[in-house]
Design brief:
Number of helices: 21
CATH class of the largest domain: Alpha Beta
Structural class: alpha/beta
Largest sheet: 7 strands, parallel
Number of strands: 32
Strand order of the largest sheet: 13-14-11-15-16-10-17
Low-confidence stretches: 192-198
CATH superfamily of the largest domain: P-loop containing nucleotide triphosphate hydrolases
Length: 758
């Protein structure tokens, strides 16, 4: 038997693959690329690894620089088939190369935890299948609940039955299923099958999508481009009906009612998932699969298995859903494509799910829709370069119009916990008319600063260059950067004074003020004030409950919250939005600050008047003369982008150029700056040697805007390039230099196309 070797990627933060010898009683065909094996690694005897290559001869070992005599043996084979197909392997390789990430860590994104720790795929698939046992027309409706009837209807539409676990994932109760079994209406059998396929049904008689001329034109263009790669930017003002366009396109994909095609819809936030699922379930009689961080390990593994088998036709999820193992993907939708939630900013793989989705669409030769009322500058610029096709929705359907936006100058005005007199008057007026009101303050907690009035001491985080935020309800001081928690102090630790004052306001303080001072004036009870921020929605399902309570109620309400409220939510009878303290971006060192601020403000303004004509927005500011407000007031995002891109052209900043950010961390500031200085010197040599003088520019090194975070000092080196290909060649050489250095007491990483320089 000819010699061969197994190349694997181990799920560890190391930027190389490893070679192993095959087991003595195995042959070449036993090792499938994309399958898992156990290997000895370091002190551990059994570590899960993914096969990336099977090398047929000793001659191919030269590039690895290792003798075959020093290789260890594979411990055992886990899979007799690949669990990652060739397309997923190619996608993983692209992510690893493009984002300079360890391939093993990339594979970790593709696999649910149960598979990462070695659980067999068959054991995840093992479950009971449920079948209907009676004629649905003969069942007395009085003998079952509405939910049970819905379950029976689903089973009746599927000759092959449905997996019990699948139905449990969709929210049906185990007790409800057992009750139907006891009554003899359904029965179950143990099955082990990957072959189950849902037959999708379109509820043509239940839900008709009425489209405006603009919506119809956009839908037709996308439908005509199915089965070929094309990036569509659906640029529609808030409330213009982008979701209706998505639904129409998906409906056309499943028009034969038994299609086995699959659709992926990416959402920026978990909170949007129930809302979108409801919209899809109104049209499609098929289980809609959700993938997000709130899924348990078991739920995620089962859903991964369903998608891989083709059992799930429509998948909605947050950024990690882009790695799901689709077998026949026909369309990708990225809703709110501008949102930074699609970017993973921590861990070893700092990727953008939107860009990965575009690459996946190109790989599958299918269209992708990027939808937003405030598209990213990159996406808009790509439409000007004709790389993307722009589709515009400029009107709200029917009689809907954009809200009236007023700028309120609050200089010299005595505010009531951030609220101006004009705002209080407007809130009272709208509530008295039976409408709902939103108060937007993008700062949670009671106050961002705790200050000693006598000596000027400020409560600081022990790990970060940041102030501790006061949380009065829990009597804690919390760092919102590293989650450090300290008890609320009664006296100043520096001078012993009792005169400790809170500075600034957060959502908690605003809520307290409303309940303590304005309830009677607004003729509300405390139940009519709902706060939505990270503090109030930390428990599983709490956000969904809060959103449901808002939309099910027709009573006047005050909805108070942070940017969690800004992303795609439709609130019935919401007719007034008040924006407090929007001036924070004016003091930022981030060149994207105005872009991010404009996007956020336009999204918040767009919550008003969506369900009825009109609507009003009051924007409180200390800088009413600022240029940004003239675009906000007119809801003119398009001209804002065009003028901003002109400025970016003059300064050669993204998206005109391409950017990479070298981040360095260490427990010693001198080590950070020494490493970055050496990196810049090496970069300067590369620029000279490769004649990149007018192509690549190095900015820095400088301390990060927050120089100390999580007890580590941080520094940056910005790398700008006029050409993307040359940038990556440059970075390839620079990282090769880093890897050749002796071990520094530092951690470095490259972030490609960074959106957050903090």
């Amino acid at each position: 038997m000819d010699k061969f070797y197994i190349e694997v990627a181990v799920i560890v933060p190391l930027k190389k693959n490893f070679l192993y010898l095959p087991l003595s009683d195995t042959n070449f065909d036993d090792y499938k690329i994309g399958a898992r094996v156990y290997v000895p690694f370091g002190a551990k005897k059994n570590v899960v690894a993914i096969i990336t290559n099977v090398i047929k001869s000793d001659a191919n070992l030269i590039k690895y620089g290792i003798s075959s005599s020093k290789l260890k043996y594979v411990t055992s084979i886990i899979d007799n088939q690949n669990i990652l197909d060739i397309k997923l392997l190619q996608l993983a390789s692209w992510i690893s190369n493009y984002y300079y990430a360890p391939l093993g860590e990339v594979f970790a994104l593709f696999l649910p935890k149960q598979l990462r720790i070695g659980k067999l795929l068959d054991s995840i698939d093992m479950s009971s299948n449920l079948y209907i046992n009676v004629d649905l027309n003969l069942i007395k409706k009085s003998s079952i609940t509405e939910k049970q009837l819905d379950l029976l209807t689903k089973l009746n539409a599927c000759d092959d039955g449905l997996k019990e676990a699948f139905l449990l994932d969709l929210g049906y109760k185990k007790t409800s299923i057992d009750s139907l079994i006891q009554k003899g209406f359904i029965y179950k059998t143990k099955v082990k099958s990957n072959e189950y396929q849902n037959k999708i049904q379109i509820k043509n008689n239940h839900y008709n999508i009425e489209l405006s001329d603009e919506q119809q034109k956009a839908s037709d263009q996308i439908i005509n481009s199915l089965s070929k790669f094309q990036v569509f930017l659906l640029f529609g003002i808030t409330g213009s009906g982008k979701t209706e366009v998505y639904l129409t396109v998906v409906k056309s994909i499943f028009k034969n009612n038994n299609s086995q095609k699959q659709v992926l819809v990416l959402l920026p936030e978990i909170g949007l998932t129930p809302q979108i699922i409801n919209r899809f379930e109104a049209i499609f009689d098929v289980p809609i699969m959700a993938l997000h961080s709130k899924c348990t390990d078991t739920e995620r593994a089962r859903r991964w298995s369903y998608i891989k088998s083709g059992a799930s036709c429509i998948v909605l999820g947050t950024r990690s859903a882009v790695f799901a193992p689709f077998v026949n993907l026909e369309l990708i939708v990225v809703d709110e494509e501008h949102d930074l939630s699609f970017r993973q900013h921590d861990k070893f793989v700092r990727y953008c799910a939107k860009d990965v989705a575009i690459m996946r669409a190109k790989q599958c030769n299918i269209p992708i829709i990027l939808g937003s009322a405030t598209p990213s500058f990159e996406s808009y610029h790509n439409t000007e370069l004709k790389k993307y096709h722009k589709l515009e929705l400029t009107k709200r359907p029917g009689s809907g119009v954009m809200p009236d936006i007023k700028i309120i100058d609050v200089k010299s005005e005595k505010l009531q916990t951030g609220l101006s007199n004009a705002a209080i008057k407007a809130i009272k007026q709208h509530l008295s008319c039976g409408y709902k009101v939103m108060l937007f303050l993008n700062r949670r907690g009671f106050a961002p600063i705790l200050l000693c009035h006598d000596c000027g001491w400020i409560a600081k985080c022990i790990n970060c260059d940041a102030s501790l935020t006061l949380h009065m309800h829990s009597k804690r001081l919390v760092c919102h950067h590293c989650n450090y928690i300290a008890k609320l102090l009664e006296t100043c630790p520096k001078c012993g004074s009792f005169d400790l004052n809170s500075v600034g306001i957060g959502t908690e303080q605003l809520e307290n003020h409303l309940k303590q001072n304005l309830l009677k004036e607004f003729n509300l009870s405390s139940d009519n004030i709902i706060r939505i921020d990270k503090d109030t929605t930390s428990k599983k399902g709490s956000l969904e409950l809060a959103l449901n309570s808002i939309n099910k109620s027709n009573n006047p309400q005050i909805i108070l919250g942070t940017q969690m409220l800004a992303k795609g939510h439709n609130f019935n009878k919401l007719n007034l939005v008040v924006i407090l303290d929007p001036d924070f971006s004016f003091f930022s060192s981030d060149f994207r600050a105005s872009e991010k601020s404009m996007q956020l403000l336009m999204q918040v303004c767009g919550r008003s008047g969506r369900m009825q004509s009109g609507g009003q927005v009051l924007l409180q500011t200390h800088f009413p003369e600022h240029d940004l407000w003239k675009y906000v007031k007119k809801s003119d995002y398009k001209n804002f982008v065009c003028n901003s891109l002109t400025q970016r052209l003059k300064t050669n900043l993204p998206p005109i150029s391409f950017m990479a950010l070298l981040r360095v961390e260490s427990n010693k500031f001198e080590d950070v700056m020494h490493f970055l200085s050496n990196a810049k010197n090496e970069g300067a040599s590369l620029i000279k040697n490769y004649h990149y003088k007018n192509i690549i520019n190095l900015l820095g090194p400088v301390p990060a805007p927050m120089a100390r975070k999580n007890s580590l000092y941080r520094g940056h080196l910005l790398i700008l390039s006029t050409k993307r290909q040359e940038l990556h060649v440059f970075l390839d050489n620079l990282t090769y230099y880093f890897n050749s250095l002796k071990k520094y007491n530092i951690k470095w990483l490259l972030e490609i196309d960074p959106k957050d320089i903090y």
